[in-house]
Amino acid sequence: MKQHQNATPSVHYDVIIVGGGQAGLSVSYHLQKLGVNHIVFEKNRVAHSWRADRWDTFCLVTPNWQCRLPDFPYQGNDPQGFMLKDEIVEYVEAFAQKVNAPLREGVAVTRVCRSKSGKLEVTTSEGQFSADHLVVATGGYDIPIVPDYAHSLPKHITQVHSMHYRNPEQLPPGEVLVVGSGQSGVQIVEDLHLAGRKVHLAVGTAPRSPRLYRGREATEWLYDLGFYDLTVDRHPLGDAVRHKTNHYMTGRDGGHEIDLRKFALEGVRLYGSMVNIRGARLEFKPDLTKNLDDADKIYVNIRNDIDRYIAENDIDAPVEPPFRKLWEPDFDPISVDANEAGITSIVWAIGFRPDYSWIELPAFDDRGHPRFRRGVTDVAGLYFIGLPWLNTWGSGRFLGIAEDAEYLAVEIAERLSNSRVGRLG
After folding, report:
1. Given this structure, which CATH class describes domain 144-348?
2. pLDDT per residue as tens digits for the range 169-190
């Protein structure tokens, strides 16, 4: 017989935070300052995704000075550098110690729904809880995306998602196809290429960015230009910007830009966007030239924005030569036979999709993405944090989490106060 969901008494909190990473801990930090009763549930350990879901040579793409968790900025001796994976884990763990949140690790939240009394009922691996407010801080990287046609690939060709890629030695001998040219894809290509592996890359629509330009790190220029403070409601694309891919570059070996045309000159085989697999035949759109040109257009636009800022503010900065293409494809290849090319493994680097199936509340669009403004949904008591473009370009990064967390904490505290006044009145 099915048990009634209220048969077991639940422990009540003013606020429950789901996710004990940097975003959830940042909200906890501000809630503690405001004296709000809450608990944080983390299904794994603090910094789990940084520790377990990144490759061995992973490092930040943004410089260390952008690590600005609430009252806990980067304090190392290399603010212009890029923290390696283990250093990121140490930074987040140190922040967790500072926050000293009411944290329960190893507790998975499996269901959130509205009770008849109006409270948010939260089912976990350790029992029932309820809350007036719930903050979802689980990120949007739940389910690795692998296309349906991947099942057509012959069994002798190894497949691995970027989430599970660790190092070149993990893959069998032979050539490797990386599918996807976002930040993860191009960095994995470089990892394989530097290890002497023969690499193929299916190039998607991701844009690219300069790393150093006119004597300065490009993200420093962009910070001064106010790019990281640009809000969703002021962006030309509006909410659609939340689904755009980040610019690719790398922090490896002190940081440098990545030009796929340079990779091609060094022997990496480039194709357009992958569209299908028929046995060992891998098929691509004839869009390689367009994708390379579009990425370069964004790259040049960023340089132009910096040039204008330098001119308007009469800044003394070295002049750089005009952009030029290092390589052009003779044609856009539309297929390759994996066996003939010697491809023995594929790394899927086409991203993730969120899994909010455990939230049984009407807060999502037709694509399963949450609807909100600055993390506040139209569903009473439900909030999100730690997502790209939650409010600004910096929202999904260490740079912008503090501001987003403080905003949500203050909003929640005010609503709790108003509801108590209402009950007393």
Report:
1. alpha beta
2. 999 999 999 999 999 999 999 9
The CA distance from 61 to 331, in Å, is 32
Cβ atoms 345, 160 nearer than 8 A: yes
pTM (two decimals): 0.94
What are 128-167's pLDDT values in tens digits?
A: 999 999 999 999 888 999 999 999 999 999 999 999 999 9
Q: Do domains 11-142+354-424 and 144-348 have the same CATH topology?
A: yes
Say if residue 298 is exposed, middle or buried (CB neighbours under 10 Å; 0-12, 13-18, 19+): middle
Q: Are strands 352-353 and 143-144 parallel, antiparallel or unpaired?
A: antiparallel
Contact 191, 57 (CB under 8 A): yes
Provide the β-strand partners of residue 40: 17, 103
Other residues' Cβ atoms within 10 Å of the Cβ of residue 216 = 15
- Short-list 175, 177, 205, CA closest to 335: 177
With contact defined as beta carbons under 8 Å apart, do 211 and 376 qualify?
no
Question: For residues 83, 89, 93 and 94, what is the CA-based torsion angle, rounded to 10 degrees?
Answer: -20
Any idea which architecture 11-142+354-424 has in CATH? Answer: 3-Layer(bba) Sandwich (3.50)
Contact (CB, 8 A) for 113 and 121: yes
* Residues 309 and 214 sit within 8 Å (Cβ to Cβ): no
Using the predicted structure, report yes or no on whether residue 236 has a pLDDT greater than 90.
no
Arithmetic mean of pLDDT over the chain:
94
